[in-house]
Design goal:
single chain, about 525 residues, alpha+beta, Uridine Diphospho-n-acetylenolpyruvylglucosamine Reductase, domain 3, Vanillyl-alcohol Oxidase, Chain A, domain 3, 3 domains, four-stranded mixed sheet, 16 helices, globular, binds flavin-adenine dinucleotide, EC 1.5.99.12
Amino acid sequence: MLMESSSLFRNKISFLSFLVFLLVLSSPCKFIQSPMDFGPLNLLQTTKTASLDFGRIYFNTPLAVLRPESAKEISLLLKLVSASSFSRVITVAARGAGHSINGQAQALNGIVVEMDSLPSSIEIHKSRGHGDYSYVDVSGGTMWIELLEDTLKEGLAPRSWTDYLYLTIGGTLSNAGISGQTFKYGPQISNVLQLDVVTGTGDLVTCSPTKSPDLFYAVLGGLGQFGIITSARILVQEAPTKVKWVRAFYDDFEKFTRDQELLITTMADKVDYVEGFIVLNEQSIQSSSIAFSPNLTSIIPQLFPSGSSPQIYYCIEFAIYDHPNKHSTLDQVVEEMSKKMSFIPSHIYSVEVSYFYFLNRVKVEEMNLREHGLWDVSHPWLNMFVPKSGIAKFKDLLLETISSNAFEGPILIYPILRDKWNSDASAVLPGPGEERVVYIVGMLRSANPTRCSTKCLNDFLTENRKITQTVSDPIIGIRAKQYLPHYSSEEQWQDHFGEHQWRRLVRRKTEYDPLNVLAPGQKIFTRRS
Ligand code: FAD
C-alpha cells in the first residue's frame, strides 16, 4: 500500500497537502489522497536516483524526495515528520552523492532529502597569522572536488581527503573520511571546526567543540543518526603545487607493513601520503595504474615473468608534496627515504603530477571503468579497520576466503594512527585503545556483469560475511571493525560499537532523534511512533 501511494503524487505537493498526506498515512485505514498545489515544501515523486546507490545491491524506493533550497526547509520537514500525531511511519534520509554500498542513504517508504539542491556556498577565511586558522565554510551537499577547485584558487586546500572526491561533505563526515593523509592529519572528521546541523526533531543547531559539543561529536562519524549536516567549517592549509607519487613493490608482507609503519612514524615529517595495496595478479596493477602506465611495460614482466607460477606482491604507495619551504628536491627526499626501506631492489617507480591531478586520481580510473561499462555495476565492497596485531592473520584470512582470479578491483591496505582520532566522535575504531597503529583494509570489488551473475554476486557477499563473522570471533582474536558498517540486527550493531559506545549512541539518539526518524538505511534503529 505504501509503495503504491508514491504513484499518487504528482510533481510538487504543497505544505498543507503534505500535512493531509501525513495525517492520512497515520490513520488506521491509510487511505491516500492526491492533493496537488505548489507550496513551500517541494516534495517530488521522482524517486529513481534516491533508490539507487554505488553498491547497486539495495534499491529501496522512498515515497518522495525533498530537494531543499535551505536548511529551514529540512527543519520544517523534520518537525512535521517528528510530530507523532501526523505520522507513525515516515523516516527521512539525507542523500549526499549516494556513494554508499548498502542502501545507507535510502529510506524505504520514507523521504529522501537530496542535499545537492542546497545552494553550494564555499566561503574561505584566510589566516591573518597570530595563531589564527585558515578555514572554509561549506554547505553539506557540496562535493569535495568542488571544495578543492575553489580553495586551490586561493592557494589553499583541506588537509585530509578521501581517495575519491565526488562524495559530499555531509556524507563523508557522517562516516569518517579516510585516505593516505589520515596518518598525518587524522580522518576528515578530525579536521572540522564547526557544523550547522538540523536534528531529528527539526532543531537548527550550530555546534563545535565548545558549543553543543555533544551534538558536534555525535554527528561526526554518526552515520546520519543525529542530524543532517547543512554546513561545515573545515580546516584548510597552504596547498602544494606538485606531488612526487611513488610505488615500491614487496614480495614479503612483513617487510611491506614494517615499511608502511616506518613511513607513518619515523618518516612522518617527510612523507605526506601513505597507502598500499595487494597485487594479486597483473590485472590488479593495471586497474589502478593509469598515471604509471609508462612504467607498466617494465613492471609487469618483472613481477609476472611469462610461464612463472602465480605470486602475490604488495605495493606501498606514498607521496611527497612540494612546498616552497622544502630545502631538498622531491627526488632527493625519495632517495633518502628509499635507502631506509626494504622493497624488492630496483622495484620502485615514481611520477610527478600536479596536486590537483594527484588528489583527483580516482576520477581517471572512473572514466576508464565507465568506458568499459564497469562503473555502474554492483560493488560488494568491504572495508575493515584491523589492529596492527591482527593484520597478518587478517591478510591470510582474506586471501584464503576470496578467489584471487575472480577478484576485480583493488585491495587497499594501509596504516593509520589512533591518536589522530577523537574518541568523543561517533566513529568506531577496533580495540580497547592500546594499539596505536590500526590498518584500513578496503576490498573494493566490482561484479563485472559479463562474468558475474546474481549467484556470483551472492557468493561475493557470502565471502564478505564469512570474513566479518570470523573477525568478530573472540577465539580467533583479530578484533577488526567494519568501516562504512553494514549490519542487519541490533545485536550486531551493539557488538560493533562495544558496550560503552553503544550506550552513548543510544543516549545521543534519544536526545537528538528520539523517534528514530533519521537515516533508516543504516538499519540501527526502528522508527518509533
Ligand atoms: P551518501 O552515500 O549519500 O550517504 C552516506 C550516509 O550519510 C547515509 O546514511 C546518509 O543518510 C548520510 N548523509 C549523507 N549526507 C548527509 C548529511 N549532509 N548530513 C548527515 N548525514 C548525511 N570513503 C572514505 O572514507 N575514503 C575513501 O577513500 C573513499 N573512497 C570511495 C571511493 C568511491 C568510488 C566510493 C563510491 C566511495 C568511497 N568512499 C570512501 C566511501 C564514502 O566516503 C561513503 O560512502 C560516503 O558516505 C559517501 O558520501 P556520499 O556523499 O555519497 O554519502
